[in-house]
Write a structure and sequence with these properties.
21 strands; 22 helices; six-stranded antiparallel beta sheet; 5 domains
């Protein structure tokens, strides 16, 4: 299945899942998921600043040992004492019951003449009190009181709640925009405790009358905590008087938490929009991107609900939208979770097919991968392979795929000589010189067929060889180019093509922006040991792959390792180049390799194995860690003697912070005899990574 089809399928699955989840969360399973809204609201509401009702106290009359008549007399005495203390408002939240056919106590007459007294609706005192209002607090099924009604329809008449009725009688609060709104309920948060007075102290004249002067006094028969009526979102247990006082404080201070009509529409719209976002933007992203997007969305939702509650005093329930969005996000992460590995496997299979000459299966596997520079490089190589097999129509099919996925090639018109470089080599258009070495120059060029940049290494083969030597050098050059061209590894620069033009043999290679590790051998610019070890481990793995393909590099050194710090990637370049031009009779000795990185057997002109590359890699690692090579001399003869006979100084003595385990790895890599070194690059890579873990 191609990536596009995979994305479409993932998007369809996510859409179906989101639709079903929306129907369940807001439909039959709403009672289960509403807990998400409640938990989120409770945690936020518990921290909403609460202000107590100004100049207010609570007096609880202990009903123990008193019958109903005695309790009524105690209430009368308390009201009389409060009137004498100049209390402003008296709220009887739990007055004693009086039968319908019983006479009201005589002291009740004072309720309508002396002070403002407020009682619950339907109580007998409602006929003589200043105002009445209903008290009906219904907790949610989890036992928490979150919502209090402001109005109640009774006998065809809308009756206010007791807190609202008291507030209506307060001129200072009468113009609150929330009181005059059409809201039918307010929401609780926390309770700011009010002072309490003993009714016995009040009746005995021991109470502080300054607390009662002009105060709002709540009279009940429910001691705090013991007779708690409800549990608030803040986790506080409160009595009826405390609930009434808290709601009255919110109403009169214009701090009521409400849920306007537009909130309901937003609560329905939010999950739908979030589900659409998840379906449209997540299936084509990586797990990391999905996690970041989900995290940002959740944080935004939490901020919206928090700011609405703290600043606007508006309750918006976004717990369920968060659950839906996280659910779709986790499903999408699961759907795309194996995609990266699947694409890596497809690329590996395609590379293996290409190396084996099975071009059609390779084309099929590469097309499953996402378009990228790496895939384009492999496809380019595949098109050349089709041409070599005399299948130009298949090569064109590959190029056409690259045009569709990487854009239409533009014709290059740059035919000018740049810095003395040739304008073209073969079909490649030279743009600029980007390097020079003992074996020639390296140019940045462009393949006009597909508008792809390439690194073009040009070697003056005709100047270096004559007659029969030139013929032999050409054969070796193309043979080694073919061997290097078979290598397909993420840490090896791909060789696309090789040819000859204008007396120059050229090799077209993958162009990789980066920095040669040679720049990090300066003692003032050394890499961190852990990074150097990891880069050399990647090199060892790539060498292991090349050696298994029968290809030896022969010139491993920091200058041939290209490092991209931004991406953290490394590529080996110049595979086989030293061998391509190797001839003991060349005029300038462009063969070389680099003596200070050569293995003892390479200096002795013996037949080489992959162990020689591992020795050179050991020298490279030593230089990256210490800022100098392990073997130095003023002339080649002394250098050869040191490489073949002397042991390198322990690297842990050269630089602080390097563990002794690195000494052991380098000692094995720099062993004089090939059989004493690591058996393969993979073994050396494991040893280097083990050292990196303790660095």
């Amino acid at each position: 299945m191609t990536p596009d089809k995979k994305q479409k399928l993932n998007r369809l699955i996510a859409l179906i899942f989101a639709s079903v989840l929306l129907l369940l969360v807001y439909g039959p399973m709403a009672p289960w998921f509403v807990a998400a809204d409640r938990v989120l609201y409770d945690n936020l509401a518990a921290h909403v600043p609460s202000k107590p009702l100004g100049n207010a106290v609570i007096i609880s009359i202990d009903p123990a040992g008193q019958d109903n008549d005695a309790l009524l007399d105690t209430y009368g005495q308390v009201l009389s004492a409060l009137a004498a203390s100049n209390a402003d408002r008296i709220v009887l939240t739990e007055p004693p019951e009086i039968a319908e056919d019983a006479r009201l106590p005589g002291w009740s007459v004072a309720m309508s003449t002396e002070k403002r007294v407020y009682v619950p609706t339907r109580h007998r005192f409602a006929d003589v009190a200043t105002r009445d209002g209903f008290l009906g607090f219904q907790s949610d099924d989890d036992g928490v009181l979150r919502r209090a009604s402001l109005w109640l329809l009774h006998d065809g008449v809308m009756s206010p709640s007791l807190p609202l009725a008291i507030a209506f009688d307060n001129r200072d609060a009468a113009h609150s925009h929330r009181m005059s709104s059409e809201e039918d309920a307010i929401y609780t948060s926390g309770y700011a405790p009010l002072p309490r007075l003993s009714y016995k102290d009040l009746l005995a004249g021991r109470a502080d009358e300054s607390l009662l002067d002009g105060a709002t006094v709540f009279v009940d028969s429910s001691p705090e905590l013991v007779a708690a009526e409800a549990l608030l979102p803040s986790g506080q247990f409160v009595t009826i008087s405390e609930i009434t006082a808290s709601l009255l404080a919110d109403v009169e201070q214009d701090r009521t938490i409400i849920a306007p009509s537009w909130v309901s529409a937003l609560e329905w719209l939010a999950p739908v929009l979030l589900a659409i976002v998840a379906v449209l933007f997540m299936p084509d992203r990586s797990r990391k991107d999905i996690a970041v997007l989900a995290g940002v969305a959740v944080v935004v939702l939490l901020l919206v609900e928090t700011l609405s509650l703290y600043v606007l005093h508006v309750r918006i329930d976004l717990g369920r939208p968060v659950v839906i969005f996280l659910g779709v996000s986790m499903l999408t992460m699961w759907l795309v979770g194996d995609e990266k590995k699947e694409l890596q496997d497809a690329f590996k299979r395609g590379s293996d097919f290409l190396a084996a000459g099975r071009l059609e299966p390779a084309f099929a596997e590469f097309r499953r991968c996402r378009p990228s520079d790496t895939i384009a490089t492999s496809m380019y190589k595949l098109s050349l392979a089709f041409e070599q097999q005399a299948k130009p129509e298949r090569a064109e099919a590959v190029l056409e795929w690259m045009k569709r996925t990487h854009g239409t090639p533009e014709q290059s018109g740059n035919q000018q000589n740049v810095n003395g470089a040739p304008t073209r080599l073969g079909r490649y258009v030279i743009e600029k010189r980007i390097g020079r070495g003992a074996m020639g120059a390296v140019y940045l060029a462009r393949d006009p067929r597909i508008n792809r940049p390439v690194a073009l290494k040009a070697i003056p083969i005709e100047k270096e060889f004559e007659d029969e030597e030139l013929k032999e050098a050409r054969m070796r050059f193309y043979r080694e180019a073919e061997s290097a061209g078979r290598l397909a590894h993420p840490n090896i620069i791909t060789v696309f093509d090789a040819g000859e033009d204008k007396g120059l043999a050229y090799i077209a290679m993958e162009y990789v922006p980066g920095i040669p590790l040679k720049q990090f051998t300066d003692p003032k610019r050394l890499l961190a040991p852990k990074r150097a070890l990891e880069l050399c481990a990647c090199t060892a793995e790539a060498l292991d792959y090349a050696h298994n393909q029968g290809v030896i590099h022969r010139d491993i050194k920091p200058a041939n390792l290209i490092y991209n710090p931004k991406e953290g990637s490394l590529k080996i370049t110049d595979f086989g180049v030293a061998r391509m031009t190797d001839n003991n009779n060349t005029k300038t000795g462009i063969v070389l390799g680099t003596p200070m990185y050569m293995s003892p057997e390479q200096l002795s002109a013996e037949d080489l194995t992959g162990h020689s590359d591992l020795f050179s890699l050991g020298v490279t690692l030593y230089e990256l860690l210490a800022g100098e090579v392990p073997f130095k001399a003023t002339n080649i003869a002394v250098l050869m003697t040191k490489i073949t006979t002397e042991e390198a100084a322990p690297i842990s003595h050269m630089r602080a912070g390097i563990p002794p385990s690195v000494d052991a790895v380098l000692a094995k890599a720099l062993a004089k005899k090939p059989q004493d070194r690591f058996t393969c690059g993979a073994e050396m890579a494991i040893a280097l990574r083990n050292c990196a873990r303790v660095s």
